[in-house]
Amino acid sequence: MSGVGTVRRWDATGVPSLPNQAAAGGSWPSSVRHRRDKHEGDNTVLTLYLQEVSRNQPLSKGDEEDLLHRGRGGDPTALRKVIESYLAQTAEIAIETAPPDMDRLEAIQHANTVLISLVADSSVAYPSQVLEDAVRDSWDID
After folding, report:
1. At what angle do helices 104-120 and 43-53 cross, to 10 degrees?
2. With 0-12 CB in 10 A as exposed, 13-18 as middle and 19+ as buried, what is 107?
3. Which of 35, 71, 103, 116 has its CA 20 to 30 A from that of 42?
4. Within 6-59, where are the H helices?
5. Distance CA 98, CA 56 (A)
C-alpha cells in the first residue's frame, strides 16, 4: 500500500510508519508548533502524524514494566503497545533536537528507530527515561 491515505502504521518488521488518519490534537509545546510551521512542504503530513500519535496514551510504570517484559519475551503486540505509547514523546524530542537543516519527518523517523532499539534492549529498564539522551546522541553532528 502506498500513497497518502493508504500508508500502513506498521510494516512487517514492526517499525512505525506515517499514519493515514488525522485526529484532534493541539497539545504540542509552542517550540514544536513553531518549528513545525517553519517548513511548509511537509506541514500537512507532519501535522497528521503529530495528531495521530498524540492520541496514544502514556503507559503507567506498571503497564510499561509488564508490556516490556512480555514484549522482550517474544510478544510483538506488547512491544508495539510500548512503542506506540512513546511515539508522541519521540516526535517532540526529534523536532526539538534535530539539526536545523534536517527534514522533520526524517528526524522523527530516525528518532523512532532509536526508540525501537531502546524498547528491544533488555538492558534498558525504562526507555522513556533515556530516550531524549539517546536521540540527542544519535545525531551525527560534527
Report:
1. 30
2. buried
3. 116
4. 30-38, 43-53
5. 23
Confidence of residue 5 (pLDDT cuts 50, 70, 90): very low
Query: Structural domain boundaries of the chain?
Result: 30-138
Q: Say how many Å lie between the first and final Cα of the chain, rounded.
A: 38
Residues with Cβ within 8 Å of 84's Cβ and at least 6 positions away in sequence, in order, are 16, 53, 56
- For 59-88, the pLDDT digits (tens) are 998 999 999 999 999 999 999 999 999 999
Give the residues across from 64 on adjacent strands. Answer: none
User: Across the strands, what pairs with 10?
Assistant: 16
Helices (H), 8-140: 30-38, 43-53, 61-72, 76-97, 104-120, 127-138
Apex 93 CA angle, 15 and 4, nearest 5: 45
d(CA 27, CA 36): 13
Cell of 115: 526508540
